[in-house]
Amino acid sequence: MTRICCVCNKIEFHGAWVTADVQSGAGPLSHGYCPVCYDNELENIRLFLRERDRGRISPAPVVPTKDSVGACAL
Ligand SMILES: [Zn+2]
Hints:
By secondary structure, this protein is α+β, with helices and mostly antiparallel strands. It has one domain. Helix content is 26%, strand content 19%. It has 1 helix and 4 strands, in the order ββββα. The strands form 2 sheets. Strands 1-4 form a two-stranded parallel ribbon. A hairpin with a 2-residue loop joins β2 (11-13) and β3 (16-18). Bound molecules: zinc ion.
């Protein structure tokens, strides 16, 4: 199975992450992050959590309950 980065679309080929045309028969794909994109996403998460903890980002939207489902006014 070929691993492909869900951000940059590089594929792992013999331990290296390379740009490739996956349309040309790469076989089954497994999506994930290459090391560069993984580090970038991890930093984005850290920044988000830091800003959230400082109150600069609103908390996550309220999850609908069984009482609120269907109460949407259009
Ligand atoms: Zn990547």
